[in-house]
Each structure stands twice: as C-alpha cells, then as structure tokens.
Amino acid sequence: MKITHYSQIEPKHFDGPAVKGVKGRVAIGKADGANNFCMRIFEIEQNGFSPRHTHEWEHEIFIHSGRGEVLCNDKWVSISSGYCIYIPGEEEHQIKNTGDSLLIFACLIPKGVQEI
C-alpha cells in the first residue's frame, strides 16, 4: 500500500512551444507495484496548456481544482472542479487553464504506456 500527498512527489516540468506551464507527477505507477494502471497528477499554471496530441490508448481525467477548457471534437469545452473526462484512443485533445489559479487534475492511463 502507498499513501502519499501528491505534492511530496517530485514533479517533471514541461515547457516549450507546444506545452506551457505544466508539472506532472506519477502518483501511482509501476514502481509502486501497480500492474494495470498509472495515476498521474498534473498542474497547469494560469494561461498554461498541455500539448495538442493523440495516442492509441484511452485515458480518464478527474478535475480536482481550477478552471479550464478541454479540446473535444475540435471544440473547446469549459471544465472546472468535479468534472470527469473520458478521452478515447486516437482522439485529438488538449487541456488549457483559463482560470486564475492552478488547474489540477488526475489522469489515469493503462499499463504499458510511458508513465510521464
């Protein structure tokens, strides 16, 4: 069993032309003995965004706090604390922070995928 506050996990920082102001952490993964899924926690700074991308696997997202938008079928949809998002494989997606505080969310991915 593992019980840890996510902020105690060392983050990986992402910044560049395609991604801005993102920190990602592997909260539960292979190193913890999780054999089926990986749980990641992301923080996106104000005006920050994840890269616009696609991949073959699905993933599930739970918005913990903040406000933002998610790209869904070429349209931006508003999201905030409490929203659940399912992204099927091969669907283009991106998340951006449109609020005035951190946008924090948990993202689950299947085994066999690069964890972060």
How far the N terminus sits from the C terminus, by CA atoms, comes to 21 Å
Query: What's the pLDDT, averaged over the residues?
Result: 97
Give me the secondary-structure category: mainly beta
Helical content (DSSP H or I, runs of 4+): under 10%
* Biggest sheet details: 6 strands, antiparallel
Shape: globular
Strand order of the largest sheet: 1-2-3-9-4-7
Radius of gyration, in Å, reads 14 Å
Alpha plus pi helix count: 0
Return residue spans where pLDDT drops below 50 for at least 5 consecutive residues.
Answer: none
- What is the H-and-E element order? EEEEEEEEE
What is the strand tally? Answer: 9
Strand content: over 45%
Report on this structure.
This protein has a domain at 10-80. A hairpin with a 2-residue loop joins β5 and β6 (75-80). It has strands at residues 12-14, 20-28, 37-49, 59-65, 67-72, 75-80, 84-87, 95-97, 103-110. It is built from no helices and nine strands. 0% of the residues lie in helices and 51% in strands. Strands 1-2-3-9-4-7 form a six-stranded antiparallel sheet, with no helix packed on it. Strands 6-5-8 form a three-stranded antiparallel sheet, with no helix packed on it. The two termini are 21 Å apart. With 116 residues, it is an all-beta fold.
What's the gist of this structure?
With 116 residues, the chain is mainly β. The protein has no helices and 9 strands. It has a domain at 10-80.
